[in-house]
Amino acid sequence: MSNPVFRFATVQGQNIHWFLKRNCSVTPVQLGWLYASLCVVSLGIGTFFWFQGATLVLPFAWLELAAVGAAFLVYARHAADGEKISLQGGRLVVELENAGRLERAEFDRDWVRVEPRSDDRSLIEVSGRGRSVNVGRYVRPELRPALAQEIRKALREAAGPAREGGAIVSLR
Q1: CA distances (Å), 92 to each of 21, 71, 72, 108, 155, in order?
Q2: Whole-angstrom Cα distance, residue 172 to residue 169?
Q3: Predicted TM-score (pTM) of this structure
Q4: Band of residue 26 on the pLDDT scale cut at 50, 70, 90
Q5: Average pLDDT, the chain
Q6: Is the pLDDT of residue 34 over 90?
Q7: How does DSSP classify residue 164?
Q8: Domains of the chain
Q9: Are 141 and 147 in contact (CB under 8 A)?
Q10: How far apart are CA 46 and CA 156, in angstroms?
Q11: Taking a C-beta distance cutoff of 8 angstroms, is the pair 107, 91 a contact?
């Protein structure tokens, strides 16, 4: 297999990997530290006003921190979401992680189809032998056709000239 230049993938030996991750500006650890500092400041101000006689400030500070904590938890739960597509030997492996749940699908490289679901801006459907998975959630819609084309190119080049006759690699 020649060593093509890929826009979305990394090449490690004979294996090609596409890591598609959610674009998060704050990691869950950073978010935890931000929340802890917010708690210290908010409860400090609430306690000060509690001692000044404004007794409702502290309960509302707790309510505010509970709401912000719940929102931060939802954010942190999905911060590590992503898709990993690997072309390893004769297998195309797709792993989807969503809220800590991992879904894995393996396809025979020679019988996999890679095409948009309905139009060029839709998710990319990877299918073969009765199983299908949609990928490309974390790529801008206008870049999804380029990603699909890159995966198809890698599949064609991995098949080699002797095996191209049996491969179903959609050129759409």
Answers
A1: 18, 36, 35, 6, 8
A2: 9
A3: 0.72
A4: confident
A5: 87
A6: yes
A7: G
A8: 9-22+81-166 (2.30.29.30), 28-78 (no CATH)
A9: no
A10: 64
A11: yes
Tokens 């530290």 correspond to 33
pLDDT in tens, 41-69: 999 999 999 999 999 999 999 999 999 99
Degrees to nearest 5, angle at CA 96 with 90 and 102: 105
123 DSSP assignment? P
Share of the chain above pLDDT 90, in %: 60
SS3 14: coil
Cβ-proximal residues to 60 (8 Å cutoff; 6+ apart), any chain = 46
Q: Residues 114, 152: contact at Cβ < 8 Å?
A: yes
Contact (CB, 8 A) for 85 and 20: yes
